[in-house]
Amino acid sequence: MNIQMIEGGITTPAGFKAASHEAGIKKRQKKDMAMIYSEVPCETAGTFTKNLVKAAPVIWDMNLVRSNEPGHAIVINSGVANACTGQEGYKYCEDMAKETAAKLGIKPESVYVASTGVIGKQLPMDKIISGIDVLASRLQDGKEAGEMAALAIMTTDTAPKEAAVRFEIGGKEVTIGGMCKGSGMIHPNMCTMLSFLSTDVSITKALLQEALLEAVQDTYNMVSVDGDTSTNDTVLILANGLAENIMITEKNEDYRTFLAAMQVINEYLAKKIAGDGEGATALFEVKVINAEETNQAKELAKSIVSSSLTKAAIFGHDANWGRILCAMGYSGAEFNPDKTDIYFESAAGKIKLVENGMATAYSEEEATKILSEPEVTVIADIKAGNARATAWGCDLTYDYIKINADYRS
């Protein structure tokens, strides 16, 4: 199974185009709309926020995913979330789909919509409709079009996030591309983010949905920046079949290869979100190893990566391992703290701070050096079995408060 990360993004798979535009939705002059389009109809799958307060685009897209209609396009705006906007907000989703469909000569039922930004405001539909018209006229394939689309969906992100993987199925070269946004309001539970994936693989809708759900559990759902689960969380994938592989209709070797590729690209994008947490200076990775079972490991890892005290210690390069053991203790997962070992690891080295629940004679100076790297890993060995899990987050800094104190202005 040879899965290669390659340069590219949403437009890398065959038959996909993208466009971006500065529609004037944001107060500052920035690109704030994007469109993704497939030359042919696609099997479509999606997964969404578990927050009971769901934005209008989430409800629109959930209804489309449940239908048997193929997907053809996605139109996205940043700056206004279209959340908590009632029937008017939902009607605007329909209007966006109808305008996109009219310009592209496709069905409104094949157009997905997504929004990100401030909650509670109605979309400026004059700018949205005008933006859709521009986007439809600018659709292009190629690397630059994908890059600009990734840039246009950002809110507090500091950089666009995109990726692509190439692999082989049934003797055919196939590709998955993707782009996402996410920086604040990120917490495990389908994560606070937008992610869009494209693939030229031929696969049934049912198996596409199953693969996406499985991939999300160990990638986006293992990310936490600040403990807030948003109203707009969405992951969508379009599969247009243009690679012309024999259609994947059962869980055979081809399906397992496709699922593995989905894991690779989604883990890459999830880590990009974690490392770009609002105000972050470091990617914070947590590995729980030798657990009795996977769910136990996941609960422990997510509790550590979500701990505000631990995240603050990572920012201060402070080897305060007691905060880690404390976070494990309130996770809800059973484990024996008196058998637990804790390590810090980074490009600067690896150090064991705790053995069997008690401090080792470690060097504070060495620990601080290890914690001063831009990517830091905590390893918690609970010595109970062979299961493991990994979660990702970031440090908690002064700038997180600054960003969120004046987000709307």
TrEMBL record:
Involved in the stabilization of negative charge on the oxyanion by the formation of the oxyanion hole, annotated site positions: 116-117
UniProt key word Amino-acid biosynthesis: yes
CDD domains per UniProt: OAT
Domain of life: Bacteria
GO-annotated biological processes: L-arginine biosynthetic process; ornithine biosynthetic process
A GO cellular component annotation in the UniProt record: cytoplasm
InterPro entries assigned to the protein according to its UniProt record, in alphabetical order: Arg_biosynth_ArgJ, ArgJ-like_dom_sf, ArgJ_beta_C
GO terms assigned for molecular function: L-glutamate N-acetyltransferase activity; L-glutamate N-acetyltransferase activity, acting on acetyl-L-ornithine as donor
Catalysed reactions, as listed in the record: N(2)-acetyl-L-ornithine + L-glutamate = N-acetyl-L-glutamate + L-ornithine; L-glutamate + acetyl-CoA = N-acetyl-L-glutamate + CoA + H(+)
Cellular localization per UniProt: Cytoplasm
Keywords: Acyltransferase, Amino-acid biosynthesis, Arginine biosynthesis, Autocatalytic cleavage, Cytoplasm, Multifunctional enzyme, Transferase
Catalytic residues (positions): 192
Predominant location category: cytoplasm
Family assignment from sequence similarity: Belongs to the ArgJ family.
The protein's name: Arginine biosynthesis bifunctional protein ArgJ
